[in-house]
Design goal:
Length: 192
């Protein structure tokens, strides 16, 4: 099996052909952001910053400037992409893309809490949080499992137990994300 590397200045991440490449990941993210109705959060975890920048640049390039608005938020320290907010008012879509190279407990907690707040605020609309991790990054799946386990162990009566299997929070590897996006496209166009 041939293994390619996508490199940037800080790290090198293995990308297996036809399973986790930049073009496919970009297409999946694009289809998720542009076709998922309601209010949704997509959190990519474990790819490098150059990958995130390419994805965000492509999404900005492909938007319909007449009906869709995109706001990209970058880090003030190093101009790296942090999030991308997509709005399409005529179709009641508001989707947010967050990106992070490595797992940070507090960042994930803030994103999950924001999701719960927003899902209550936009109750008439369907909402979801999809956390997509790079399965080639070491220990990410275990860290995510530990995060959700710890959140449930530490919750009290006044705080919601964050458990992804009992809510509209999905923790997905790239293969599961492919299926997730396929389901979105089927809902959007049942004749596919």
């Amino acid at each position: 099996m041939v293994v390619m590397r996508i490199s940037d200045t800080s790290d090198s991440i293995q990308i297996l052909p036809n399973s986790n490449n930049l073009a496919e990941l970009t297409k999946l993210v694009y289809n998720c952001i542009f076709n998922h109705g309601g209010y949704n959060i997509l959190f990519l975890l474990g790819w490098n910053n150059s990958t995130y920048r390419c994805i965000q640049d492509k999404i900005v390039q492909l938007r319909n400037t007449e009906t869709e608005t995109i706001r990209v938020i970058r880090s003030t320290q190093d101009d790296l992409p942090i999030s991308l907010e997509y709005f399409c008012e005529d179709q009641s879509k508001q989707n947010v893309l967050y990106t992070q190279v490595s797992f940070t407990f507090n960042t994930l907690r803030l994103i999950v809490e924001k999701y719960y707040y927003v899902s209550l605020r936009f109750k008439p609309y369907k909402s979801s949080l999809a956390i997509v991790y790079n399965s080639h990054s070491e220990n990410l799946q275990k860290q995510l499992d530990d995060f959700f386990t710890q959140q449930c162990m530490n919750h009290n009566e006044s705080s919601k137990c964050i458990h992804h299997s009992e809510s509209s929070i999905s923790v997905l590897d790239i293969d599961q994300f492919r299926d997730f996006v396929g389901d979105i496209l089927l809902i959007d166009d049942p004749e596919r």
